[in-house]
Automatic annotation (TrEMBL), chain A:
Organism: Hamadaea flava
Domain of life of the organism encoding this protein: Bacteria
Gene from which the chain derives: pyrR
All residue ranges annotated as the Phosphoribosyltransferase domain in the record: 19-160
Protein name (Swiss-Prot/TrEMBL): Bifunctional protein PyrR
Keyword terms, alphabetized: Glycosyltransferase, Transcription, Transcription regulation, Transferase
InterPro entries recorded: PRTase-like, PRTase_dom, PyrR, PyrR_bifunctional
Group of enzyme by EC: transferase
Assigned EC number: 2.4.2.9
Family to which the UniProt record says this protein belongs: Belongs to the purine/pyrimidine phosphoribosyltransferase family. PyrR subfamily.
UniProtKB/TrEMBL annotation, chain B:
E.C. number(s) listed in UniProt: 2.1.3.2
Protein's UniProt name: Aspartate carbamoyltransferase
Positions contributing to carbamoyl phosphate binding: R55, T56, R105, H133, Q136, G263, P264
Family of this protein: Belongs to the aspartate/ornithine carbamoyltransferase superfamily. ATCase family.
Metabolic or biological pathway: Pyrimidine metabolism; UMP biosynthesis via de novo pathway; (S)-dihydroorotate from bicarbonate: step 2/3
Organism: Hamadaea flava
Keywords: Pyrimidine biosynthesis, Transferase
Span of domain Aspartate/ornithine carbamoyltransferase Asp/Orn-binding: 152-301
Subunit relationships: Heterododecamer (2C3:3R2) of six catalytic PyrB chains organized as two trimers (C3), and six regulatory PyrI chains organized as three dimers (R2).
Binding site for L-aspartate: K83, R166, R222
SUPFAM superfamilies, per the entry: Aspartate/ornithine carbamoyltransferase
Residues annotated as domain Aspartate/ornithine carbamoyltransferase carbamoyl-P binding: 3-145
Length: 200, 306
């Protein structure tokens, strides 16, 4: 167990920086294999941390196969089903690649798969934005506890958790460090000053 | 977060900028094939209009519908109001019907404020008497930001019937909050010196031509014929000559300066047709931006737990 920065709260590191690199390499290869060369594939990162993950996957796929995949950003705030129960949330950017997503294989990329409600909201958003040929899901961590019949096509690491635990993905682009942390009940995996993640 | 939107003075710079940012995202919905978001599904928005205003009512209606809210239009004309029902009783009726937000336009200044005491939902002021029209100020400043890249530091001339204009009042307040310099321009009968104390940095001028070369934004106001119950100026020709924006005056403005008008326009009274239709005019943009800004306001007032 380690101590969180600036706090006395304890957490365990589940994936280190090197682990995250290896996991993303593997997912990139799996995407190439499953999509048979990744032609007509679009990566859509779910804000916030899905976006840098999508860009990293695109870089790796380009390095492995010299295929430049378009990357977009999807903010699902306006599609959430718990808006009325939460305090107001800032709306982020949604930006599709210039070619759009019609007829493409869209790969949604997010950091943590939890209840499945974020993915459901993302699927609703995608159906308003165009008509892809197929939608797949890539996540860095699957922590279980699904509330909807949703599963990921590409999983970096399955982490069986209890409901009392928190999984926090930190990425250098957003948080200045690459790490996946698991905090136990009463503790927090939050880095000091970081925003709380969405319901996943 | 704010519960009601009654006055531009209630908005601080952070909140107004947040509304602008959200409006920019909402604007992308207008370009989509499916111009709809599920955000306010199951919420009811009532448009309570005691004055005719097709433009503002439609703008609020489109904004609410794009967010999937149910919209009820309640017009005073031909309704229980004509049968003598008071605002308070109407409010209780709306409350009983489960209105989550009431968008109100009323000829009496302060009516939206009264309404907040009688309904549980949010109240949005869509124009009260000669008092305020905060969403117009938000959409105008949003339009300035879109065209000029910023609002802070702009020189804005608001020209015409300031006395009767809730648009002028709300704009002066919000522009001050956002760091712009405002000069009110018009005949002394329509721009009383007392208006100069509305905000600390407000200027008042009766000479349009001296203001033009320094203006980044020239906002023309409609000459409100329906409120001209006194001799505020000799004739509309005389007014046009001194305060109308024609091509010659447009040429005296800096090259980057834009022309705004909240509509509806009186072509040939306060603005020349060729100026209204010029690329420097933002009049059509203002209408489109109105929907985006009202979507942002409805989201902020209704999108979260109150």
């Amino acid at each position: 167990m380690r101590r969180g920065r600036g706090s006395l709260l304890a957490y365990k590191v589940i994936l280190s920086e090197a682990d995250i690199h290896r996991v993303l390499d593997r997912i990139a290869h799996q995407i190439l294999e499953k999509t048979q060369g990744a032609s007509d594939v679009v990566l859509l990162g779910v804000a916030t941390r899905g976006v840098p993950l999508a860009h990293r996957l695109a870089e790796r796929i380009n390095a492995f196969e010299q295929v430049k995949l378009p990357v977009g950003t999807l903010d699902i705030t306006l599609y959430r089903d718990d808006l009325a129960r939460q305090s107001i949330r800032a709306v982020g950017r949604t930006e599709l690649p210039s070619g759009g997503i019609d007829g493409c294989q869209v790969i949604l990329v997010d950091d943590v798969l939890y209840s499945g409600r974020t993915v459901r909201a993302a699927l609703d958003a995608i159906s308003d934005l165009g008509r892809p040929a197929a939608v797949q899901l890539a996540v860095l961590v699957d922590r279980g506890h699904r509330q909807l019949p949703i599963r990921a096509d590409y999983v970096g690491k399955n982490i069986p958790t209890s409901l009392a635990e928190q999984v926090k993905v930190l990425l250098s682009e957003v948080d200045g460090v690459d790490e996946v942390r698991l905090a136990t009940s009463g503790a927090s995996a939050e880095p000091s000053g970081a925003q709380s993640g969405s319901v996943q | 977060m704010i519960k009601h939107l009654l006055s531009a003075a209630d908005l601080d710079a952070v909140t107004a900028t947040q509304i602008h940012d959200i409006a920019a995202e909402m604007a992308t919905v207008a370009g989509r094939e499916v111009k709809k978001l599920p955000t306010l599904r199951g919420r009811t928005v009532v448009n309570l209009f005691y004055e005719d205003s097709t433009r503002t009512r439609t703008s609020f209606e489109v904004a609410a519908k794009r967010l999937s809210a149910d919209v009820v239009n309640f017009s005073a004309k031909g309704s229980s109001v004509e049968k003598g029902e008071s605002l308070k009783d109407t409010a209780w009726t709306l409350q009983a019907m489960g209105a989550d937000a009431v968008v109100i336009r009323h000829p009496a200044s302060g009516a939206p404020h009264r309404l907040t005491h009688w309904v549980h939902g949010s109240v949005l002021n869509a124009g009260d008497g000669t008092h305020e029209h905060p969403t117009q100020a938000l959409l105008d400043t949003y339009t300035m930001r879109s065209r000029m890249g910023k609002v802070e530091g702009l020189n804005v001339a608001i020209v015409g019937d300031v006395l009767h204009s809730r648009v002028a009042r709300s704009n002066a307040l919000l522009l001050h909050t956002l760091g712009a310099k405002v000069t009110l321009v018009g005949p002394p009968t329509l721009v009383p010196p007392a208006f100069g104390s509305l905000t600390p940095s407000l200027g008042v001028s009766y000479d349009f031509d001296s203001v033009l070369p320094h203006a980044d934004v020239v906002m023309m106001l409609r000459v409100q014929k329906e409120r001209m119950n006194a001799a505020f100026f000799p004739s509309s020709q005389e007014y046009y000559k001194r305060y109308g924006l024609d091509s010659a005056r447009l040429r005296r403005m800096p090259d980057h300066a834009i022309v705004m008008h909240p509509g509806p326009m009186n072509r040939g009274v306060e603005i020349a047709p060729e100026v209204a239709d010029s690329p420097r005019s933002t009049i059509v943009e203002q209408v489109a931006n109105g929907v985006s800004v009202r979507m942002a306001c409805l989201y902020l007032l209704l999108g979260g737990r109150s």
